[in-house]
Amino acid sequence: MWIFGYGSLTWKVDFPYKQRVVGYIKGYSRRFWQASVDHRGVPGKPGRVVTLVASENPEEPVWGIAYNIAKEDVERVVAHLDHREKDGYQKTPVIFHPQDTSIQPWQLIIYLGSETNPFFVGQSEEENIAQIIAYAEGPSGSNKEYLFQLADTMRTLGVSDPHLFNIESTVKKILQI
């Protein structure tokens, strides 16, 4: 079984896997439009985490990392990820395109916070999102740590993500760092 990470699963890999492949899925945009009251915020003061929303451009890539889970680990890893991604995320099959173009695309699973889930907050001004992320904290740590780790990972992969990097820049201005 293959799982695709586009948020914290790109840098906080707390499950066993056999193989890791960098690549992308098409037709989505990565956005901080999902509230987090269980990891990067708390009830009454939610943080923001990324989800994917349908793009107007069916070729638009969202880069991330695919993980191949060994058969003997699938049940345990899926139970762990179902709990980790519990607030509004559902498993969705998509086609993954490896960075190495000599490898054929294949279907895998993503955890998608759909627009109908109760934690989907929808489009917001990036400045407003940055204000939330700058100060939110939850059981898994500060929301800014999530943002900075994700931005650093995407830079390491050589990915351009204006939404992510604009919010990162704005949070750094807010916090004067």
TrEMBL record:
Gene3D superfamilies: Gamma-glutamyl cyclotransferase-like
Entry's family note: Belongs to the gamma-glutamylcyclotransferase family. ChaC subfamily.
EC nos: 4.3.2.7
Catalysed reactions listed for this entry: glutathione = L-cysteinylglycine + 5-oxo-L-proline
Assigned keywords, A-Z: Lyase
Lineage: Eukaryota, Metazoa, Ecdysozoa, Arthropoda, Crustacea
Name assigned to this protein: glutathione-specific gamma-glutamylcyclotransferase
Function: Catalyzes the cleavage of glutathione into 5-oxo-L-proline and a Cys-Gly dipeptide. Acts specifically on glutathione, but not on other gamma-glutamyl peptides.
InterPro entries noted in UniProt: ChaC, GGCT-like, GGCT-like_sf
UniProt-recorded Gene Ontology molecular function terms: glutathione specific gamma-glutamylcyclotransferase activity
GO cellular-component term (any): cytoplasm
Keyword GTP-binding: no
Xref: SUPFAM superfamilies: Gamma-glutamyl cyclotransferase-like
One Pfam family this sequence matches: ChaC
Broad EC category: lyase
PANTHER family for this protein: CATION TRANSPORT PROTEIN CHAC-RELATED, GLUTATHIONE-SPECIFIC GAMMA-GLUTAMYLCYCLOTRANSFERASE 2
GO biological process: glutathione catabolic process
